[in-house]
Structure formats: structure tokens, C-alpha cells
Design goal:
CATH superfamily of the largest domain: CorA soluble domain-like
Order of helices and strands: EEEHHHEEEEHHHHHH
Distance between the termini: 70 Å
Shape: rod-shaped
CATH class of the largest domain: Alpha Beta
Length: 319
């Protein structure tokens, strides 16, 4: 899909551009969303640039993700998406600054892009140039990541209360599941922030930003925000690791308590079982076979043999 945002005009889609199609001169933002090869070629011809393919966007080498070519600045960052789903994921998004235009290439639907595009359509003053659109998009992505981390922090706090104020009969399965999801989401958010930090640092070298003081200040502010969020993400990761260790420790304590109960029961009932086994043997020549008080005597011996181990365990503090 090919979408255009023009200066002072609402955004519009280009459903199936044909050869000979011309890019409007007042276009400030070109969005390529899961583009076909034909759409890529038309934009390349209109701008005189070679756009990165999906495979090139996925490469992790800095030289493949951040570079300048033919007067344009190409920047690819990993963006977190599907954060509200059970399986959050992250995918590369490419930003190209060329002259007064911005080109974005993506194969995902991050909420930050949707929100910013809707704002840009309502307020044309937000994107007088492609550089403004680029900085606005970065603002939206950073704000969205901050919201995700804030929500994750709340979930981790709730998990902490569940672990340390959990009723004795409560289970750990749901708690561990929530902590695992929080850790996965936080890890992907941190990867995205690290990628954004590299992109912002490289973007400061572009001609469109380097020559404008307001843009430089805006970028520095974004850089501080990203660094702050990265530190918070690291703190969250440490907290989640601590809670996972605490939950596993409590699970071990409960399992040990259960094993202790069975061990004590086995030791307590072992002597009575031995006595009952002895007097259950069917030998004709047994001293107590015809003893009148043999049955109560056997019962008394079994009770004493059960009580003595219990008394000994309590004296040693094992119970």
C-alpha cells in the first residue's frame, strides 16, 4: 500500500499506481505499507533513490541499517508492536530522509504510526516538512514505548503482591505466566529502545537536522527520553528476575514442606507397621500367641512406637 501526506492537504491512498505516475510536488511523507515491488519501483523512480528491501531491513549490521546514499539518510529501527496481544513482537521499520520528504517502509501496523498519521491528517501544521514528520513519528514511538513500560511496571507490581501476599492454597502457575509475559514484553521494548538510540544518534548527522537548531534540540530531547526509558527497562528486568527467583524459592519451600510431611508420616508409621507385621505372622510357636492380653499389648506398643518419633522430631525442632 502506498499512502501520501501532502503539505496542507489530507492524506490519501494511491491504490494501484501505474507507470508514468508522478509524485505530487507538495508531498512531505510517503508511507509504504507492505509495498509491492511495483510500488517500490515507482517511488524509487520518483525520488531517484534505491530503497532497501525487506531482507535488507532485517539485517542487524549497523552499516546495513544506518547509512547515507545519494544525499538521503537511510535509518532502520526495530519497533515494538502487538504489545496488547499475548505474543508481542518487534519488526524493522525504515525511515528515509531525502530533501524535504520522509519515506517510511514498514510491514507491520504499530499503533504509534496510526495515532500520529491520524493527528497529521487533522493538523496539517504538524508536518510542514518530512523532517517534522520524522521527529513527530519518533515522538509517537517513544511515547508508545513509555506507555508499554509503564503498564508492564504495573503488572510486575501486581505480580509482586501476588507472590508475597499469596494465600497458602494459591497456585504459582498464573503468577509465573504473567511474569514471563512481562519479561518478554520488557525485553522487546528494551531492544527497540536500543535500536532507536542508535537511529537517533545517526539521525543527528543528517543534513536536514544538522543545519536546524530546533531539530537538533528536539533530537537531543528524544535521546534523553530514550536513555531514561532504557534505564527504566533495565530496572524492570532486574525486578522481574528477582520476582522469578522469589517465586521459585517459595515453590521449593512449599515442596520441601510437603516432602517433610510425607517423610515424617513414613517414619512415624514405620515402627507400628513393623510391630503389626511381627504379630501378623502365622507361626505356631509364638510366645504371645495364646497370651490373653497380647492384642492390647500390641496396640500399646504400636502407639508408643508412633508417638516417640513425633516427640523426638519436635524436640529437635524438625516439625
Amino acid at each position: 500500500m502506498l499512502k501520501l501526506l501532502r503539505n496542507g492537504a489530507p492524506a490519501f491512498d494511491v491504490p494501484s499506481p501505474q507507470s508514468g505516475w508522478h509524485l505530487p510536488s507538495d508531498t512531505v511523507w510517503i508511507e509504504l505499507i507492505e509495498p509491492t515491488r511495483a510500488e517500490e519501483l515507482l517511488v524509487e523512480q520518483a525520488l531517484g533513490l534505491l530503497l532497501p528491501t525487506r531482507e535488507e531491513m532485517a539485517e542487524i549490521e549497523a552499516s546495513s541499517r544506518l547509512y547515507q546514499e545519494d544525499g538521503a539518510t537511510f535509518m532502520t529501527a526495530t519497533i515494538l508492536h502487538n504489545a496488547d496481544e499475548d505474543e508481542p513482537s518487534s519488526s524493522p521499520v525504515t525511515f528515509v530522509l531525502t530533501g524535504e520528504r520522509l519515506v517510511t517502509i514498514r510491514y507491520i501496523e504499530p499503533r504509534a504510526f496510526t495515532i500520529f498519521a491520524a493527528q497529521a491528517e487533522r493538523q496539517a501544521s504538524l508536518c510542514p516538512t518530512g523532517t517534522h514528520a520524522f521527529l513527530g513519528l519518533l515522538d509517537a514511538v517513544v511515547d508508545r514505548t513509555a506507555d508499554i513500560l509503564e503498564r508492564t511496571s504495573g503488572e510486575v507490581e501486581a505480580s509482586s503482591r501476588s507472590i508475597f501476599k499469596r494465600p497458602r492454597e494459591g497456585g504459582f502457575e498464573q503468577i509465573l505466566t504473567r511474569l514471563g509475559r512481562s519479561q518478554s514484553l520488557n525485553a522487546k521494548a528494551r531492544d527497540s529502545l536500543v535500536s532507536l538510540a542508535r537511529l537517533i544518534s545517526f539521525a543527528s548527522l543528517s543534513e536536514q537536522i544538522e543545519t536546524d537548531r530546533d531539530h537538533r534540540d528536539h533530537l537531543k530531547s528524544l535521546q534523553r527520553d530514550v536513555q531514561s526509558l532504557t534505564d527504566h527497562s533495565s530496572y524492570l528486568s532486574s525486578n522481574i528476575t528477582f520476582l522469578l527467583d522469589a517465586a521459585l524459592g517459595l515453590i521449593n519451600i512449599e515442596q520441601n514442606a510437603i516432602i517433610k510431611i510425607f517423610s515424617v508420616a513414613a517414619v512415624v508409621f514405620l515402627p507400628p507397621t513393623l510391630v503389626a507385621s511381627i504379630y501378623g505372622m502365622n507361626f505356631e510357636q509364638m510366645p504371645e500367641l495364646k497370651f490373653v492380653h497380647g492384642y492390647p499389648m500390641a496396640l500399646i506398643i504400636m502407639v508408643i512406637s508412633a508417638v516417640v518419633p513425633l516427640w523426638w522430631f519436635r524436640k529437635k525442632g524438625w516439625l
